[in-house]
UniProtKB/TrEMBL annotation:
Protein name as annotated: Dipeptidase
Membrane spanning stretches: none
GO molecular function annotations of the record: metal ion binding; peptidase activity
InterPro entries recorded: Cyt/Met_Dipeptidase, Peptidase_M20, Peptidase_M20_dimer
A biological process term (GO) from this entry: proteolysis
Position of the signal peptide: none
Domain of life: Bacteria
Alphabetized UniProt keyword annotations: Hydrolase, Metal-binding, Protease
CDD domains: M20_dipept_like
Length: 457
């Protein structure tokens, strides 16, 4: 590793110049006017793969933005690592809140500021440079490598499922590595080995054919807001537990080893409460804050609408009311089954005096790689060595549908080895990436690929 560190230090300025070039391209996948920028970024990625010695490099079309692929498969008898990342970025609005132009990368205070710096151009770029460094050091790689870099992650990866399904043989690997997630906190290396799934639903309640005067009709005809409120209130008990029948039936419980690992993190619930400015934390009784947000399923009301929304009062009895609900799901739960249970619950608790309809939205299955899998433990060891601190093994409360896609279709373990920080404003103005994590992360990735050959034999 000393030779690797020497090259990383010697080439650091060049690496950062190249990263600035990549960050300068406004590859906003949500905006049709940036289609040419998306194409330019895909070409940049393809050229970068060729320059570091990857073979079979191709810009592969989808029904939307293309996927960039490249591989190096000459490590005979060694495992194959599939590296996933994305080259598209979020829109930059509101532009006036940026201290420096979002597509003119600026380094200050040990951080690089630009849209995509941490999500995800900066992190996927690290894997390019780690592979390049290993090639420069040894003339070959310790493992076989495949890159799959897409251009639609920020709009929900609508065409990735189909791409992965059609390219199963091409993408076949022994482990998938993703760096598109944050560390727990500064100086705390983190391996995430599981994510919650997602099931979203909208409830629309209709009463009379139009809004009515509450003085003339109130008390005599159904109020959709009241009917909706009754349904929503029925979904939890007074201890924070979801009341939908069968909701918890298939939940895979937390293992003793995992619980001990979470307890050892010494999470400060009171600090969270104070930071959020709430009188008290809330959630399912009998579980810690980390357990509630990482490994327990949830049902949340994300929005409600109905009636008069302006200032003052308008004595209207609305004809319609609606609510949006999302459930975060854990291993064992299937989003289609959960949505079916929700619809049964809504039907059971709805008033006969109104019409109730439901619409399904985002869905994604949860995934978890076994806590003691060699690929997970090897990542933790490499991170601990680079950071000089014990690695935290966590799950995340959010959802990353692409992880479930790879897990479900390719059936391979997934290692989420992120180097961003929760405070780095991804998706917001002044997005940035700490160069401390750029430097240490590069060392960790190089060490990980070097050690993985042994661990997965």
């Amino acid at each position: 590793m000393q030779d690797v560190r020497t090259i990383l230090q010697t080439e650091r300025d060049r690496h950062l110049r190249e990263l600035k070039e990549l960050l300068a391209i406004p590859s906003v996948s949500a905006s049709p006017e940036h289609k040419k920028d998306i194409e330019e970024t895909a070409k940049w990625m393809a050229n970068a793969l060729k320059n570091i010695g990857m073979e079979n490099v191709a810009i592969m079309p989808t029904e939307g933005h293309p996927v960039v692929y490249g591989d190096w498969l000459h490590a005979k008898g060694k495992p194959t690592v599939l590296i996933y990342g994305h080259y598209d970025v979020q829109p930059v609005d509101p532009l006036e809140l940026w201290e420096t132009p979002p597509f003119e990368a600026d380094i200050r205070d040990g951080k690089i500021y630009a849209r995509g710096a941490t999500d995800d151009k900066g992190q996927v770029f690290m894997h390019l440079k780690a592979v390049e460094t290993l090639m420069e050091t040894h003339g070959e790689l310790p493992v076989n490598v495949k890159f799959c870099i897409e251009g639609e992650e920020e709009i929900g990866s609508p065409h990735l499922d189909d791409f992965v399904d059609k390219k199963q043989q091409l993408l076949d690997a022994d482990v998938l590595v993703i760096s598109d997630n944050p560390m727990l906190e500064k100086g705390q290396p983190t391996v995430c080995y599981g994510l919650r799934g997602l099931a979203g639903l909208q409830i629309d309640v209709t009463g009379a054919k139009g809004d009515l005067h509450s003085g003339l009709y109130g008390g005599g005809v159904p109020n959709p807001l009241h009917a909706l409120a009754d349904v929503l209130a029925s979904m939890h008990d007074d201890k924070g537990r979801v009341s939908v029948e069968g909701f918890y039936d298939d939940v895979v419980p937390l293992t003793t080893e995992e619980k001990e690992a979470y307890d050892a993190l010494g999470h400060d619930d009171e600090a969270v409460r104070a930071d959020l400015g709430v009188p008290a934390l809330y959630g399912e009784e009998g579980y810690t804050f980390l357990e509630r947000t990482w490994v327990r399923p949830t049902l949340e009301i994300n929005g409600m609408h109905g009636g008069f929304q302006g200032e003052g009062i308008k004595t209207v009895l609305p004809s319609k009311a609606s609510a949006k609900i999302s459930c975060r799901l854990v291993p064992g739960q299937d989003p289609d089954h959960i949505l079916q249970l929700l619809e049964q619950h809504i039907e059971k608790h709805s008033s006969d005096a109104v019409t109730v309809e439901t619409t399904h939205f985002d869905k994604g299955k949860p995934f978890v790689t076994p806590f003691d899998h060699p690929a997970i433990q090897a990542a933790g060891a490499a991170l601990s060595k680079a950071y000089g601190a014990e690695t935290a093994y966590t799950r995340m409360g959010g959802s990353l549908p692409i992880a479930e896609t790879f897990s479900d279709i390719l059936d391979i373990p997934i290692v989420l080895m992120g180097f961003g920080l929760p405070t780095e404003n991804f998706h917001a103005p002044n997005e940035h990436f700490h160069l401390e994590n750029f430097d240490k992360g590069l060392e960790a990735i190089c060490d990980y690929y070097s050690s993985l050959a042994e661990k997965l034999q």
